[in-house]
């Protein structure tokens, strides 16, 4: 059910997808879905929270680097790899925020702040030791994440560039943006 909802929300948008359509995709009666989720809002929230929990958990499993530059590189490469493996979840996590109830939005926003906060800490630490030159760590954080998220819109496996080549090019752009 979750996979079907994820695919349908990504393809058609949350507002355009009914519980009946999700049930049809899964091959059950619409009423059966309510055994698994109270409503469509809860389903959207669960998908978004699951994505953010997976992101934060995967990030916590990454090796710890010592220098600010190495930490920034590791973050940049991780972000690209993680998100390219989950294009539908990424799309929904950014495009469907507007459809969350205020309470659900606050939870997702808190999870996003935790992830963004890691990057902002890296930038602040680098700035404080003179390794990075950024006027505003928050704006730079948001700009870097937006740039890294852009890879999902155009990258295709088997295309002109390999994933390691894309990571290297993006890392070079991130590095130049802060040094």
TrEMBL record:
Pfam families: TetR_C_24 (PF17932), TetR_N (PF00440). Residues 18-37 bind DNA. Keywords: DNA-binding, Transcription, Transcription regulation. Residues 1-55 form the HTH tetR-type domain. PANTHER family: HTH-TYPE TRANSCRIPTIONAL REGULATOR BETI, HTH-TYPE TRANSCRIPTIONAL REGULATOR RUTR. This is TetR family transcriptional regulator. It comes from Marivita lacus.
